[in-house]
Please model this.
Amino acid sequence: MNKVKNILTTPIEKIILFFLFLQPFIDVLTAVSLVMFHHSFLLGLGIRMLFLLFMLYYIIVHHSKNRKYVIAILLYMVLFMANISCEKGIYSFSYELKSLMKSFYFPIVLLGFYEVYQNHNSVSSNNLKKIFIIYLLLVFLPNILGIGFPSYEVTKSGRIGFFYTANEIGAILSILMPIFFYHLFQKENKIINVLSIIIVFYLYLSIGTKAPLMLFVILLIYYFGCYFTSLVQSKKYKSISIIGALLILFGSAIVLLLPKTNFYQNIKVHLEYLEIEKPSDIFKDTKTLDHFIFSERLRFWSNTSKIYKKSSMVDKVIGIGYINNYSTDQVSMKMVEMDFVDLFYRHGILGFLLYLLPVVILFYQILVKYRIERKKEKMNPKKVAYLFSLGFAILLSLITGHVILSPSVSIYVALILILLYNELYKESKL
Model:
């Protein structure tokens, strides 16, 4: 065991870095396998599960003070699968187990990263910037060449490069974007900065989904606001005039080009489908608002809530699982696609509390330290970028889902949370 332990722990920095840089290519191979061969890329799933087991091994063998908590999660998972097997039969076992492992990937990897980062510094924000660029190129280049996969199966337009789902790749790009911007604006080369912003802007327009573009605009307003304020304080009026002129030109170009983009066309198609003539009509009733803003997630929420209320007390505590109405002729596997909502119903009160406890503790400690630092001095730009990333992750989890319940996305949320925690604290608090 000591020899095995030495083999597994000695190169841990390289293992984590290699695994993270492998992520975009696993996602590409998965997409190609599903789109062209109609098969899941099992090797990619296997690699991610091996990494999960590696994190479990690291926590348990290293006598981490989080070991008991991880064991509690594993006991819950056994309890969940036992209950599901009793209620839905052995034929549901494979799908429910796969869904369970995907969902609980986040808290286990989060605690694994926490434990690793007490003794190692294997990943930096610069590594995350490079990973963002890889994702960017794997979407940008195929879209430019017209060979990217479609964002939607029917009606709406858009392309997501060599990836499979618009929500997941949109979430990854959105969460890593603040870190990319942080590094971008550390450089003085304005041409590269402007060109990079245009490429990212084009990318989000070509994907065709609403959320990433909205988050891009929020981030851009923040950075431009900070830069403009610094110019005013420095009384650099010539630079202010030039930037003002560039913003007017950029705004005019957007007004002219926007109607030709996938983003605009999708909005137009959606409004026509709902028979909406003016934007204010979106808010005329709950059904229209749900369809346009949440893509009917509120309706799915209501349906899942009804199933949960009819379930047994055991199911309310442990969770109803991922296959609905299993004992009827109306079997359904449709998720709400709002992560915290799905987490509560699928894993019940016990699973929900176990899942979120370390996250809540970390966030609480981060916010406490953040408030202290703000009183002492101006917040470090890198920490601000991490906060934006985590804020975007929470927002996307609430609105579009596919963030903390998707391993390809949640691994970055876990890593950024730990990076921010370590930036704020010198000693362990968890």
